[in-house]
Amino acid sequence: MMQRAEMKQHSRQTLKKGIPSLVVNWLIPLVLYSLLRGIVATDTAALAISGAVPALWVIVQMLGVRQIDWIGLLGAASFGAACLISVLSGGGSMPLKLYHPVVACLIGVVALASVAIQKPLALILFRSLKAGDPERFNKLVVRRKFSHATSVFGSLFIMDGIVHVIIAFSLSTGMFLIWSRIVTLVMLAVLVLAVRYILWQKKYD
C-alpha cells in the first residue's frame, strides 16, 4: 500500500536535494553576472560565464554519483549549443537567453506525449524512486492521478518556455535574468502545489 507518509518523505528528500540546485542554477548565475558586467567586454560574455555554472554543476554531479542526469545533460548540451550559436552569429546574447525556454518546451512536449501514449513521466519517476507498493502503480485510479500530474507538469513547462521567450525579446539582459528566475520559481511553486493536490488530496483506493 502506498502510504502518504512515505510519499511525503520522498518529497522532503527531493526538496533537500533541490535547494543546492536552486542556489547553483538561479542565485549564483545572477550574482556572478552582476559582478562580471563591469569586468568583461560585453553582456553576452558575462551571461555566458554565469550560465556555465549550472552546466558545470550538472557534470560534477553526474561524475559524483556516476549516473546520467538526462534532463541536466540536455540543459548543459543546450547551453553549449547556445554559446556556439552566439559566437557564430556575432556574439549576440539572444541564443543564451533562448536555450532555457527551448529545453523547457521540449520537456513539456515530451511529458504531454507520455500522457498521450499512456506512459506518464510522473509514474515512471515514482516507480524509479520505489515509493510505495509497486503493485499500486498498476491500478487505474493511480495511473489516472499520475497522468493528470504529468499533464500539469508538461503544460507548465511549455508555459514557462513561452513566457521566457516573451521576456527575452522584451527586456534587457540584466532584467531578463531577474525576471526569468521569478517566472521559473512561480511556475515551480504552482507545479508543486498542483501535483501535491492531485496525488495527495485524496487517498488512493
UniProtKB/TrEMBL annotation:
<feature type="transmembrane region" description="Helical">
    <location>
        <begin position="70"/>
        <end position="92"/>
    </location>
</feature>
<protein>
    <recommendedName>
        <fullName>Intracellular septation protein A</fullName>
    </recommendedName>
</protein>
<feature type="transmembrane region" description="Helical">
    <location>
        <begin position="21"/>
        <end position="39"/>
    </location>
</feature>
<feature type="transmembrane region" description="Helical">
    <location>
        <begin position="176"/>
        <end position="199"/>
    </location>
</feature>
<feature type="transmembrane region" description="Helical">
    <location>
        <begin position="146"/>
        <end position="170"/>
    </location>
</feature>
<keyword id="KW-0472">Membrane</keyword>
<keyword id="KW-0812">Transmembrane</keyword>
<keyword id="KW-1133">Transmembrane helix</keyword>
<feature type="transmembrane region" description="Helical">
    <location>
        <begin position="45"/>
        <end position="63"/>
    </location>
</feature>
<feature type="transmembrane region" description="Helical">
    <location>
        <begin position="98"/>
        <end position="126"/>
    </location>
</feature>
